[in-house]
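Input/output pair, single chain:
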Amino acid sequence: MKKSLLTSANERKQLNIIIEKLEAAILSLDDTTHADLINELEKDYYELKSGGSRFELGMLQKELIIDQLNSHFSLPEEFNDLINMLNNYKQEDTSYKKYGLSGIIGSLLGMGR
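Output:
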């Protein structure tokens, strides 16, 4: 079984903030709001990633995000692709390198790049 990488309460709290912003971005219908929230989400993601311990989305984290989002609404099929891209970015994922986090989330929200 894969060890959870989100071991500290602070990391869990920060992940929950990221999840809330992602939920807000997905639920929002205003394109300007989408862009603002995506920028905030990307900033928080990199702050968390560089905040002392490595931040990676393993199986437990993917399940947590999917469960929390599913409790609010049905996820589009593309969301699983987003999670997989985030999970694989360190393994030379060309989608992540080409588009970055905001591009991947923008694609999920229908904004494209």
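Residues 42 and 102 are 6 Å apart (CA to CA). Residues 9-108 form one domain.
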